Amino acid sequence: MTPEALSALHARFGEQLSTVPAVLDAHGRDESGLEHVRPHAVVFALSEADVVDALALARTHQFAVVPFAAGSSLEGQLIPLRGGLSLDVSGMKKVVEVQPGGFQATVEPGVTYPELNRLVRAQGLFFPVDPGAEASLGGMASTNASGTGAVRYGTMRDNVLELRVALMDGRVIRVGSRARKTSAGYDLKHLFIGAEGTLGIITQLTVRLWPLPSHVVALRCPFPDVEAAAACAVSVMAAALQPERLELMDAEGLRAVNVHKGTSFPERPTLWIELASPSAAALEEALSLCRELCLDAGALEVGMARTAAERAALWEARHHAFYALKALYPDHTTLSTDLCVPLQHLPAIIAFTRAQVDAEGLHASLLGHVGDGNFHVLFHARPDDTTVWARIEAVYDRMIAQTLALGGTCSGEHGVGLHKRRFLAQEHGEALDLMRDLKMLLDPHGLLNPGKILPDC
Amino acid sequence: MTPEALSALHARFGEQLSTVPAVLDAHGRDESGLEHVRPHAVVFALSEADVVDALALARTHQFAVVPFAAGSSLEGQLIPLRGGLSLDVSGMKKVVEVQPGGFQATVEPGVTYPELNRLVRAQGLFFPVDPGAEASLGGMASTNASGTGAVRYGTMRDNVLELRVALMDGRVIRVGSRARKTSAGYDLKHLFIGAEGTLGIITQLTVRLWPLPSHVVALRCPFPDVEAAAACAVSVMAAALQPERLELMDAEGLRAVNVHKGTSFPERPTLWIELASPSAAALEEALSLCRELCLDAGALEVGMARTAAERAALWEARHHAFYALKALYPDHTTLSTDLCVPLQHLPAIIAFTRAQVDAEGLHASLLGHVGDGNFHVLFHARPDDTTVWARIEAVYDRMIAQTLALGGTCSGEHGVGLHKRRFLAQEHGEALDLMRDLKMLLDPHGLLNPGKILPDC
């Protein structure tokens, strides 16, 4: 960034601009463990006008712009590879409108999903996408995040109705519709969802809200091995029980949770299943069917969390599993995979993964949203242990090759960022060229979050 | 089309090519009632290679290509405005794969949704998008069609996992993923869904299948007026009953159905609601809550269709309502609107519409998928009655202006075609320019279904 650019930013943004080293540091990393890169400056945007003006200055002075909010991305999306400006929208927290009768809310991108949930709970509504971290809705849309609720309610893609997006050329466009469905022209909304800030900056979102289920229970079923647990997950889906959540954690994950949270869950591969129903009687029927399925599939027990407090404790444990696993080996670096396969292939890809991990003598933990066919393998090793990291990367490559052969995807919910760029050609073939064309169309000078998603843009 | 182009087509396609007048006629219209325009030739494609080769010849000889399958579009999408080639993919009927365990099927674009349903029923599965006509899945994806099932299962957009698309430049790309969710790069799939064949030709689809609900009942609730019925629909949605279907038909619609099908439904504005549950007990609870809601909202009675045969008869009647209404006035032309608003605005927009129709002394019937905030007004008049048609168009314009002011869309499910092009600038503002840019990127010579969606492309 040139001195002229910096003084132009200062003239426009005054105290909203920071070049304090600690601030630059905080905007140079996410939760991926990838190498930090400092931006040259940070602007704390408070309005759409701030975003538009920052982009205008970027255009004039040709510096890169990387959007930033909660800082919880897992694939290096927020790292300003080429320096430039980190555009922090975490202060854009306006709740523009909540429409309980229309099951929707319109918010600015810095609002986090727990904040939205606290806001709408009194109306008997909730927002179902829960990636775990205290993530912002703008960031969640930008990576098409999901979480435990996706098996029942879909991902961000399914829960964003309308966006306002600031484009690199100065336009602000509204894409999508507040209506539940539309067939009025090309769908531009889905271009910006999952684009990781490389095509435009989201300045407002209208999202869907859902009625809070009235009768809910969570089941905890430990299994003798991961493969049996995965096969049971497939049976639960096939039985049309339509669970609210269907999660798998392995023994190591439960050990980490026990250490981290002081819990005493059996340290076995475990399915955590949540069922809900509008009536108590219906819930009991579903519960009894699900319990039977789990026992038939080899569950060692079927624990139940019936009260709201019990369930909250259980899902908090699940949401903290990633951090608990990282905390178990504080001097290690962690790498999380994120593949997703068609459900019928889930047991096979899990067995393949275990075999690969064992053959290479690696240390890895598995946890995932198995009702969607999505799971994460957390590899870890000392940062300087190049031999082990080479083996990890080789296993990762083989896992992805196998996933793609089964019709799956290299990323179910974390996005591409830096680490998965190398898989995109393999996954998309010639469609990748069309992605490049779209990037050129919307950001011809490559100023929007350069180096992310596309290997060469 | 030049004689050279025609002989090149003949050399490649032989008996798959037709220039027989009756065949050209049949490919010059859809169900919109818009003016027929004959293509110069029809190719009956039987494979992806046929589609690719037809596009290659179009590129060489610069003729227009309009995809055609079931011919059931309602907005003139299939009309070859500038002549050229009608590319009939209705013979591409291969079922590539059905994966019951993965809840998905891969088919060619000529397969219709009733054909798919007959195929997967034995596995306890179904495909929920039901636009009414015997529509093809390729055409349904191209207009983002929906129908009565959308309130519970979403539209084509929500039920297409993966597409193969032949592009104008000769490439065939695979977009989307067979995994239930993906965050791996820009979403190209949604560009082609709803693009009405203007960006590429769909040659294969992988769609989601759903478990057939085990316990189902349909309710029939006549109301004293349309406004009360619409308000009740909003209450049913707010009560989180998650109906399988939630339809409104007005008195005229029921009269048409009675005449057409020999039924004797009360000729009153009526809600048709379908509820389903995994258990009989749960269904009874939902039923009793729904019944109470309807009676509180002023329902004159609550009829029930409990057996599969009764329900089939009821939904067949609903699906035939459009044709029944057309048949009521055989010498009239029909125009159907298709607006969709956020649910909380449904009663207001229906009241507005009725007031407009009455003020202009028009004849119109209202029916719709009100659980989604989507409804159709069927206007009709003698084709040569220019005074009445001018009034109809004026009311239509005012309905759309009001819809857009309420955050709605000019098309919930029929697409844009020819008739709604004039509303797009109003609905999308500057985003329309980006749609034009996308069209230029994928079809620089304007050969793919020219004149559709975008007013000037």
From TrEMBL, chains A, B:
Coiled-coil regions listed: none
EC number: 1.1.2.4
Signal peptide (from-to): none
GO molecular function: D-lactate dehydrogenase (cytochrome) activity; D-lactate dehydrogenase (NAD+) activity; FAD binding
Family annotation (InterPro entries): FAD-bd_oxidored_4_C (IPR004113), FAD-bd_PCMH (IPR016166), FAD-bd_PCMH-like_sf (IPR036318), FAD-bd_PCMH_sub2 (IPR016169), FAD-linked_Oxase-like_C (IPR016164), Oxid_FAD_bind_N (IPR006094), Vanillyl_alc_oxidase_C-sub2 (IPR016171)
Keywords linked to the UniProt accession: FAD, Flavoprotein, Oxidoreductase, Transit peptide
Domain FAD-binding PCMH-type: 35-212
Keyword hit for Transmembrane: no
Name used for this protein in its record: D-lactate dehydrogenase (cytochrome)
